[in-house]
Every structure is written in C-alpha cells, then in structure tokens.
Known about the structure:
Blueprint: H1 8-21, H2 31-38, H3 42-48, H4 52-77, H5 81-98, H6 100-106, H7 116-142, H8 151-171, H9 182-189
Helix pairs in contact: 1-2, 1-4, 1-6, 4-5, 4-7, 5-6, 5-7, 5-8, 6-8, 7-8
Amino acid sequence: MSITKPGERKLQILQTLAAMLENPKGEKITTAALAAKIDVSEATLYRHFASKAQMFEGLIEFIETTIFGLINQISQQHKDGLQQAHNITLMLLSFAERNPGMTKVLIGDALVNEDERLQQRMNQLMDRIELAYKQALRQAGVQGQVPESEVAMRANLLTTFVLGRWQRYAKTGFKASPTELVTAQITLLL
C-alpha cells in the first residue's frame, strides 16, 4: 500500500476525473468507475469529496483560477485593449486544446445529470469572461479603436465565438482544433 501525502490523493482524483472526461464517447462517469480507475474504494473518494458534485466543483475551481489568473496577466501585460481581447481569446482556446476534459466542463456536457448549481456556476464563469472582454474593449474604446456603442456587442460576439469553438472541439471528439485558423478569425472579429 502506497502512502500519499495530504492533498495528493485529492489532486489524483481530480486529474483522473479530468482524464476520464477526455473520452470522446462521453459515457456517464460514476464514482465506482472513477474509484476503479484510481484503484481505490469509493469510500476513499468520499473521504476527500462529500459528493461527485464537489469533485466537479474542484475542476471548476481549477478552471476559474487558471483562466482568470491568465486574464489578469494579459490585462497587466498589454495596455492595448484590442491586443488584450485578442490574447484572451487565444488563451481561452489554447486552454481548451490543452485540457480536453475541462472543455466538457466548460460547455456543460460533463455537468448533465449533475447538481444544477454546477451549470449555474459555469454560466457565471461565462458571464465573467464576457465582462473581461468588455473591460478590454472599453480600454480599446478609450484608445479610439472601438466605438463605445459596440463594446457590449463585440464582447458578446467574442464570448459566443469562444463557446462555439469549445463546442465544436468537444463534439468532434477533440479532433477539430479550437485554435485552427483562429488568429485570422479573431482579427476579422475585432
């Protein structure tokens, strides 16, 4: 029996859950299947997480922390509002490409038949992404690059574009790269 350090088993559970979500067939993930994949009992899972919903919350927290940490970095590194919007879009699509299992969480597919508060949380995440775009585009407006009257519309368009690319990536079994031709497409959108 191997001894794991505190927090290691919890991380292993989340990593395995994310890896299981990468299955293009999208079978329902049960705690029994997750426990078998890690070679532990279901009771071990429940020592670290009170429910499967809490496991998904752990994935969502990872997504939020990563995405918004990177958005903050982009905002600090680039004063040009259009460049911020461009880089946020590239980052969001690259994140999905590097984390296919997380993409299923982002688009809500992994949350079907789970606690509805999880989907509400993902909806809030999308609202925060749109808000980040608005902030970047307001900066672009101050710089004379975007009419103020178009900030909300463009932010919504970029958010919808990213969500559509994530959807296509997941629905094609992770074959249609979300970053393919994206630089030209973002330039066209902005």
